[in-house]
Specification:
49% helix, elongated, OB fold (Dihydrolipoamide Acetyltransferase, E2P), alpha+beta, Elongation Factor Tu (Ef-tu), domain 3, 4 helices, 3 domains, 360 residues, 12 strands
Length: 360
Amino acid sequence: MEKKKKINKKFVIIISTLVVLALVYGGYKYIRSLSHVSTDDAQIEANMNSIIPHVGGYINKVYVTDNQKVKKGDTLFTIDQNDYLVKLEQAKAQLAAAKSEVKVAEASIGSYRANAAASVANVSSAGGNIETAKIKLGRLTNDYNRYKNLYEKHSITAQQYEQALAAKEEAENQLTILQSQQKAVSSQSKAANSQTIISEKQVNVADANVKSAQAMVDAAQLNLGYTVVLAPIDGQLSNVDLQSGQFVQPGQALFYLVNTGKKWVVANFKETQVDKMRVGQKVSIEVDAFPGDEFEGVVATFSPATGAKFSLLPPDNATGNFVKTIQRLPVKIDFTKNNDTDKLERLRSGMNVDVDVHLK
C-alpha cells in the first residue's frame, strides 16, 4: 500500500513538473512573440547573371573552369572570328565604294553648275543682241517709211526705195533669228539647272549610302568584338559546360556567373505575422549549414504581392469552392556591415536559414 502511494506521489510530481515546464515555455513563447517574429521559410539569394553570347559560332577556346572565381573583364571564352573578319572586310569595301560614288557625284555637279552658269550668260548676251536688233529695226523702219513717201512722190528712184525695203526686211529677219536663238539658249539653261538639281540629289543619295555603309562597318566591328566573351561582373561561375568546337547560338544561355559580393535573404512570412514588421528592424539570421553562427540583418523591403501571385498559375478564388489559405509575403533582408566578411563569403545562394525579426 505504501509502495503504491509512493508511485502515485512520483507520478504527481512528474506531471506537475511537466505542467510547470509547459506553462513556463508557453509563457516564454508568448512574451517573446510580443517582440519577435520568426520563420524558417527563408533562403539566401544572390544575383545570377546568365552568360549569353551576342553572336553565334563555333567555340574557339574556353579560358575558365567549373566554379572558378573571375573578375570583371576576364575572358571567359572566344568564338571563331573568321566569318566576322570577312564580313568586316566586305563592309569596308562597300564603304570605300560609297565614298567613290560621292566623289563622282560631286564632280558631276560641278560640271553641271558650270554649264548652268554659261547658259545664264548666253541668255543674257542673247537678250542684249535682241535689244540692239530692235533698235536697228526701228531705225531702218523709219528710213523705209521716209523712202516710201518719197518714192510715191517720185522724188527718189526705185532702186533707192528697194534698198530701204531690203534693209528693213533684213533687220526683221535678224531679229527673228536672235529671238529663236534666245529661246534655244533659255531652254538649254533650264535643262542645265534641272540637271544641276538632279546632281545635287544624287550627291545626297551618295552621302546617305556612305552613312549606311559606315553603319555596316560599325556593326561588323561590334560583332567581331562580341566574339570575345568577357565577365560582366566579379563573381563565381557555375558549371561551365563548354568545349572547343561546340556551336553556340546568339541569345543562348550557356552558364551562370553568381555575384558573390552581394547577398541577401528572402524570408516568406505568413500574412498574419507582418502586422508589426517595419523596414529597418533588426534581424537575427541562423544558417542551417553553419549551426552556431549568427548573422545580423535588417528588414529592407516588402514584396508588393504575395508569393502565390507571382506563380505560373496564380489561384483564382472566384472559381470553385473557396478555401481560405494563409498566404506568405516575401520580405527582403539585407546583411549589415557588422557581420564577419569571411563568414559571409562562405554563404551560398539557395541555403536555408532561420530568421528572427526584432519588433522592438
